[in-house]
Amino acid sequence: MRELIVVGNGMVGHRLVEALRSRDTDDQWRITVLGAESRPAYDRVALSSRFDGAEEDDLLLPDLTAHGHVDLRLGAEAVGIDRENRTVTTADGAVLGYDALVLATGSEPFVPPVPGRDLTGCFVYRTLDDLDAIAAAAQGARAGIVVGGGLLGLEAANALRLLGLDTHVVELAPRLMPVQIDEGGGALLRRLVEDLGVNVHLGAGAAEITGAAGRVTGLRFAEGHPLGAIGADLVVFAAGVRPRDALARAAGLPVGPRGGVVVDSGCRTEDPAVYAVGECACLDGTVYGLVAPCNAMAEVAADRLLGGGATFPGADTATKLKLLGVDVASFGDAHGSTPGALDVVMNDAVGRTYAKLVVSDDAGTLLGGVLVGDASRYASLRPLVGRPLPGDPLELIAPAGAGLGPGDLPDDAQVCSCNAVTKGEITTAIDEHACTDVAAVKACTRAGTSCGSCVPMLKTLLSAAGVEQSTALCEHFSHTRAELWEIVAATGVRTFSELVAAHGTGRGCDICKPVVASILASQGNGHVLDGEQAALQDTNDHFLANIQRNGSYSVVPRIPGGEITPEKLMVIAEVARDFKLYTKITGGQRIDLFGARVDQLPHIWSRLVAAGFESGHAYGKALRTVKSCVGSTWCRYGVQDSVGLAVELELRYRGLRAPHKIKAGVSGCARECAEARSKDVGVIATEHGWNLYVGGNGGFRPRHAELLAADVDTATLVKLIDRFLMFYVRTADRLQRTAAWIEAMDGGLDHLRAVVVDDSLGIAAELEAAMARHIDNYADEWKGVLDDPEKLARFTSFVNAPDVPDPSISFSVLREQRVPTDPAQPVALGMPTTRSAP
Amino acid sequence: MAASTLTPGPANAPAADTRWLAVCPAERLVPERGAAVLLPDGTQAAVFRTHDGALYAVDNRDPFSGAQVMARGIVGDRAGEPTVASPMHKQVFSLRTGACLDSPGTGLRVFEVSEAESTIRLAAPAPVGGGAAR
User: Signal peptide location in the record (chain B) (predicted)?
Assistant: First the structure.
């Protein structure tokens, strides 16, 4: 076997090893990877997701050492190359011989030479360690500055924002993301970014990072800037990168005019035994910084190492991103620099979208484009670059335009630019490997496995190939949830047994039973634990509480709008104290009481119900809370009574079962202290009434709600929410939050607005009537249990020992409260008395 | 309803030293709603009656989470095999064999269970050390 050394364990080095390992079927190469960082390779493109709650493990790339013949040395920095003797020396003095060497050292952040750049509180944005250092410094800090308004700078700005800092972006160019987007797109991007509370300073150079006692205090602008200076506690430099080519320079390999090891189209340097790939390489005078061309280089080098003749296919520098929640895409000749190029622009200042197509002088060929605010057309437009336009260019970007179908794409058009997969390869894989869903297409072709922006196109191609992507709920029902809803409504079937006998097969499962339970509940079928319905409920709905890791439950009484009297607060406190329940304030402005055994739940609730509390439905796929800020009653900025409205809405929709949980929020002014736009239903007060936003959520993929109706009065607002919620309850899929429901809807938000606001389907009255029935039929579920001995009898730990508490539930103490005993610790099992059934 | 007994899975068949534990009156075991049983040895079982009237009993302990919760799982079937899904993370187990259908190699103990004289009984393993429950 021959020896290959790969210097650098970033994404591109990892890609090279992966490509080589998967094709080196005769085990030609033994690979040693030298990584300077102490971590295994991780997805640097997704670095910022760290601030959205991603754990370090989520970012790690697959471990390649399991393949064998791969020796990964972490924390082993290469410090010298001896090309004559073909050896690499590491920082700890090891000397390793090679037959071939690949440099994949990547780049390092460029820090402009401004005075003060070394002060404590100055950071770069490149590695996980950088991000952790920024997060640590943000503790107790008030404001932060990002130097650089490009792609990385905006990611850094979002990070600072998420860390709770007052955030400034300072960019020398007259617009944000100057490399990727044009002036029109930049203007909209600026507005959207500023709407998020980020301060944008364009055409502004930094003269100095100011400091005191060695620490950052702010930034002084270059002469002539109206602001003069801004204060901040930390500064992040995101002003570009430079190829990390020092090792190659020292080894005498030629570098490009702006750095980067010079390579030919086979990614080989002047020395035939040495390759360079990714951001440290200079190919045809260009250093590429995007993952797609860098991956392409890794593939080329892998092929060459195995004796192939692959050449760099040319770069696709197309980009689609969501920056600060704003869609931005740029592809092809985005700036119209081709001679004679014409622009076709659609600039919708109200809808906050901007789209530009660059076409050839005869308007026959698509050359490139820019999309800001809505980049959903990216997947269909980008592959057409350099090809004849299938129609009127304006039609392709008009909001209600026809858009493009998969038939408009030629076979050799790249659908996935990250992994260079063409439409032809995808359709071939669908045929030959009988792919039946997107996951199978991903596994066969790698398309859609990096940035994911082409996934909608993969679905379209599957449909176009005649593959019916199953919409069956599970093996027991071939219907969608919405179809089952209609069946139940139309037939009047009121039990699962009747439904599965007439319209399904078998006896159901943990997927279809809760769905049917929810459908029955939202059509008014009595108490959720009545008769056979009880057996359909997930354990949470079955015990009207939330199961926790040790099998105990938590209890959440409803506190409408987060408003509570001291007397009621005391009742909660006394119950928590008497039952020794761990107590925590939730994000939804109520109180969660943890650690209740099944047999304690009725005792806890009899006291809560006696004090006037009701179920908070924290356990249900149902309306959870309507969060509110304090509003005009107290707040000197408030323009409407947000608490009053929140209480009204929470009481109106309490108990409404839905495909997934529903959260709502009401803010009393545009400052948005209730964070209403992160809710399924968000209401923000205006001087004239209320703005209604829909489809927001926190969680795994945070998303801001979008404006459905503006400046409506309270009666209209309530009517629109009635219609919106009932339309969602009827038509969404199982476990589909409102955001995903709207995204998947044909016509998206526009269609939703047509249905809910303009009543385009003529169902508004029906939706309102259904909601009115729900409101009339509402009854507190916990009171229903307490009033019914049969239901109460279920609340025992053991059927053969009703008075024995579950001995497997044990607690230890953490910060003065009871928490589940760590399962790793031995659990003390009591030996309680058992008794025979009577 | 006819008495129904089941052959336990071979891997964990109760040995001869079991005794029949009266669990509850027959009408307390509602179809497709499990019930937890405290066994003399301090472990727990989950007893189920499926829609067709058949009785099953498996470990109450979910092997994935370690919590005693299987009796609170949703009962159904997978391709005709009677099943219960863990309420914790939804792994599905065969009620007949105790085998986890989503993660081969993991499973639940199965217990013999019978219905006679309007009483559900379960063949409980003897407590460790042979001492009967007090």
Answer: none
